[in-house]
Amino acid sequence: MSRTLDPEAMAAPRPHPSLWDRLRRHRLFGYLAIAGPGLIAANAGNDAAGIATYSSAGSQFVYRTLFFMVLVTIALVLVQEMAVRLGTHTGKGLAALIREQFSLRWTAVALLCVLLANTGLVVSEFAGIGAAFELVGISRYVVIPIFAVLIWGLVVFGSYKWAERIFLLFSLAFLAYPVAAVLARPNWADVGANLVLPHFSGDKDFVLLGVALIGTTVSPYMQLYAAAAVVDRGAGPEDHPAARFDAVTGAIFACIISIMIIIATGATIGGQGPLDSAAQAARALRPVAGTGAEILFAFGLLGASALAGAVVPLSTSYAISEAVGVERSVTRRFREAPLFLGVFTFQVILGAAVALTPVNLIQLLIGTQVLQGIVSPIVLIYILVLANRRSVLGDAANGRVFRIAATLAVVAVAAMSLLLLVQTVLGWFGAG
């Protein structure tokens, strides 16, 4: 007896395998194929400002910030996971969710924090591009305008997905830091002790750098970008395992590189005090690159800064467009998403223009991370509240253990920022 064929069943398209199915099927190759929002957002934190901050930590305090960085890594993993979970399970970015779940006034506060922090950060990324070329004798006044046009064109007219991969490839130069950390022969007993035992200090310099480390590692733009990017990719609840794997492994990878930068700089230039130039930060690579340390550092700095130079203004564009409720996607053209691409264009122009003015690069980079660190607790509170709400995530909302851990992380970040503000205010009155 012949089988009766159902025309509707024959016409129905076969469901596409989820990202997680592809990841399990192809393992490493599958991960490399889907690696994006989580990995890119976390590695964008290892940008010009990040490298300057981690290098300064090693230069000023040798290994004393390592335990602090372990705590910051845990916080980043928790926050990144919440961000991509919100994106995959709701199909909305963080700004859109804030607009829906909070009042207009509180939405405006969130947007103001993002704009304030991101504007300074975009400037630092283009300053980092200029510094990378100045290390090899090329003027920033030549390269910054060229790269501003290049980054803008890749996002607006070209293939941003390919640009992501290219910038990430450039950033792999910073894999030399783990090698440099080993070749510099640090005192591994001291390294281990500082990794597992707190070596905190209450003095203002340590607190200032601590807040900068938080700002460069748990930056608000990273969470805004990660959530918006998984939505832009069309990821749904079935893709959450893959998105979570991407976010968690990306965060851990980025923080391991950060810790290795601190170890390498601590072993080579530790105790010399605050950094004054990018060339000083490059010295930590001399055990692996010798006289070519500046070239290797410049190569990595260029890739990291260019990646963040695209990601940071994109996160601003996502946030504003989501809050207003208009089209936002890197696959759209200007006539289809004028606000989204207009905000991106404005930030790129502003960032490049300010980066061309005379600035002390290291002070600018660390200063922007301090600002990020002060703003971060505000944005993290929004993320925590949203991820706790069953009205938003249903059964995917934070469980009891995760909620406690995430709350402790947010409170700790807020406490550091508050301590810095208190010390600053006391200093104004001569009591700091």
Descriptive account of the structure:
The chain is mainly alpha-helical. It has a single domain (37-268, 277-390, 397-428), classed as Amino acid/polyamine transporter I (Up-down Bundle), CATH 1.20.1740.10. It is 76% helix and 0% strand. The protein contains 22 helices and no strands. It has helices spanning 7-11, 19-26, 28-34, 37-44, 48-61, 66-90, 94-101, 104-134, 140-156, 160-171, 176-183, 188-196, 204-217, 220-232, 240-269, 278-282, 286-289, 293-324, 338-355, 361-388, 390-393, 400-428. Helix 6 (66-90) crosses helix 12. It is globular and about 50 Å long. The model is unreliable at 1-16 and 22-34 (pLDDT under 50).
The helix content is over 70%
**Largest sheet at a glance?**
none
The name of the CATH architecture is Up-down Bundle
What is the overall number of helices? 22
The first-level CATH class name: Mainly Alpha
| Beta-strand percentage range | under 5%
Shape: globular
**Which runs of at least 5 residues are low in confidence (pLDDT < 50)?**
1-16, 22-34
Radius of gyration: 22 Å
Strand count: 0
CATH fold-level assignment = Amino acid/polyamine transporter I
CATH superfamily: Amino acid/polyamine transporter I
Question: What number is the mean pLDDT?
Answer: 82
- The structural class is mainly alpha
Determine the N-to-C terminus distance. Answer: 91 Å
Order of helices and strands: HHHHHHHHHHHHHHHHHHHHHH
Q: Give the number of domains.
A: 1
